[in-house]
Automatic annotation (TrEMBL):
GO terms classed as biological process: CENP-A containing chromatin assembly
Keywords assigned: Coiled coil
InterPro entries found in the cross-reference section: CENP-P
Key word Coiled coil present: yes
Entry-linked PANTHER family: CENTROMERE PROTEIN P
Coiled coil: 6-40
Top-level lineage group: Eukaryota
Pfam families, A to Z: CENP-P
Organism expressing this protein natively: Ramphastos sulfuratus
GO terms for cellular component: chromosome, centromeric region; nucleus
Protein encoded by which gene: Cenpp
Protein name (record): CENPP protein
């Protein structure tokens, strides 16, 4: 065997022996530390652990509270959907920008009101001060089924300009109800005229 190879192996062996010695010393220190705990300290540690467990069980209670709140909110939403006849079929949200006290999210919502379908796309700018949170709707885009109606087109354009979603949903509910009445009336007269022509 080459002498240089022997030196390499000897150096490696010395390095491993030093590492073993260091690990043995660390092990002894740990063993000594564990024997330094008094019964009182051990009991205190057990009590602290038990209080942590109780805190977790309280967390479970708060989960049940959250579940009850969620069920209540779902019931409220269901009531509002029946009351206004606005039903949301899909919603997606994506955070576009987040900077300290400013967040911008992009929302896409689609739904129906009576037989009239709609789609909304907008950005929600949320700014937070020390005292309050303010939100602003920007880049509102509305697509409605009855876009050929000139009055609806004007209304949609005005709503997009002002970013007023509350007015949009109020007006949509009223308009869609009358749109549904007109549609049924038209179908009724269409059926009557077909019957009269077939006589």
């Amino acid at each position: 065997m080459d002498i240089s190879m022997c030196h390499v192996y000897e150096d490696e062996i010395k390095s491993l022996e030093e590492e073993i010695k260091l690990l043995a010393e660390q092990y002894e220190d740990i063993q000594q530390e564990s024997t330094f705990y008094s019964e009182e300290e051990i009991l205190m540690a057990i009590k602290a652990f038990q209080s942590e467990l109780q805190g977790e069980s309280k967390g479970n209670e708060s989960r049940s509270d959250l579940k009850a709140q969620l069920e209540s909110l779902e019931a409220d939403l269901s009531f509002l959907m029946k009351f206004t006849c606005v039903q949301f079929t899909s919603h997606s949200k994506r955070t576009v920008e987040r900077y300290r006290n400013r967040t911008v999210q992009k929302h896409r919502i689609s739904g129906k009101c009576h037989s009239l379908s709609f789609q909304l796309e907008f950005q929600l700018l949320e700014m937070q001060d020390e005292e309050k949170v303010s939100t602003v709707i920007t880049d509102l885009s509305i697509v409605m089924e009855s876009g050929e109606d000139a009055n609806v087109s004007k209304f949609v354009s005005r709503t997009e300009e002002h970013g007023d979603l509350l007015t949009f949903f109020r007006s949509l509910s009223s308009y869609a109800e009358w749109y549904e009445h007109r549609r049924r009336t038209f179908l009724h007269f269409k059926v009557v005229s077909i019957k009269l022509l077939s006589i």
